């Protein structure tokens, strides 16, 4: 298993940039993760799967291909334990997190739960990530 010093988590914006050559941010993503072990942060696993399987043809992956890509490229993915999830709505409400930002907060909460930094290219999500205490890596 990877040590925390070697491991970083990615959100969907960073994951898609990394796995799609030609995507905005691809070269930056490759440079940012070089030599590191990678995982997706919680809910970003499902978001990434969703994006990969709904891209316009011919970029769209089959469900099986998307699942393989995620398993192969992000083997150190981390998730929130069920017992932690029960407290999150109250925590998010106290922080003023609502609407679509809840999904960013779930991604951030998984990174915080595991004490791991999060690579993102999503500037819009950064305030939410910071509100939940994420250590951000930006490329």
Structure at a glance:
The protein has 139 residues and is α/β, with parallel strands linked by helices.
Can you tag this structure with a few keywords?
alpha/beta, Rossmann fold, four-stranded parallel sheet, 10% strand, globular
Major sheet strand order: 2-1-3-4
Helix-strand makeup class: alpha/beta
Strand content: 5-15%
Q: Give the ordered list of helices and strands.
A: EHHEHHHHEHE
What is the helix fraction of residues, given as a range? 40-55%
Weakly predicted, low-confidence segments: none
Whole-number average pLDDT?
Answer: 95
- State the CATH class: Alpha Beta
- Characterize the main sheet: 4 strands, parallel
Q: What would you report as the Rg, rounded to the nearest angstrom? A: 15 Å
Tell how many strands the DSSP assignment holds.
4
Describe the structure.
- The protein is an alpha/beta fold and 139 residues long.
- The chain has seven helices and four strands.
- The protein has helices at 12-19, 26-33, 44-54, 63-73, 82-95, 101-113, 126-131, and strands at 7-10, 37-40, 118-120, 136-138.
- Strands 2-1-3-4 form a four-stranded parallel sheet.
- Helix 1 packs across helix 2 (26-33), helix 1 (12-19) crosses helix 3 (44-54) and helix 3 crosses helix 4.
- The mean pLDDT is 95.
């Amino acid at each position: 298993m990877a040590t925390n010093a070697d491991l970083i988590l990615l959100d969907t914006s960073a994951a898609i940039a990394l796995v799609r050559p030609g995507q905005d941010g691809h070269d930056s993503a490759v440079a940012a993760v070089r030599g590191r072990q990678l995982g997706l942060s919680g809910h970003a696993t499902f978001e990434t799967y969703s994006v990969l399987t709904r891209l316009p043809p011919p970029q769209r992956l089959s469900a099986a291909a998307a699942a393989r890509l995620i398993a192969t490229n992000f083997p150190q993915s981390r998730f929130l334990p069920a017992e932690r999830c029960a407290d999150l709505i109250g925590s998010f409400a106290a922080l003023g997190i609502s609407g679509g930002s809840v999904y960013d907060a779930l991604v951030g909460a998984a990174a915080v739960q595991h004490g791991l930094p999060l690579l993102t290219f999503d500037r819009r999500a950064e305030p939410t990530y910071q509100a939940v205490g994420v250590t951000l890596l930006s490329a």
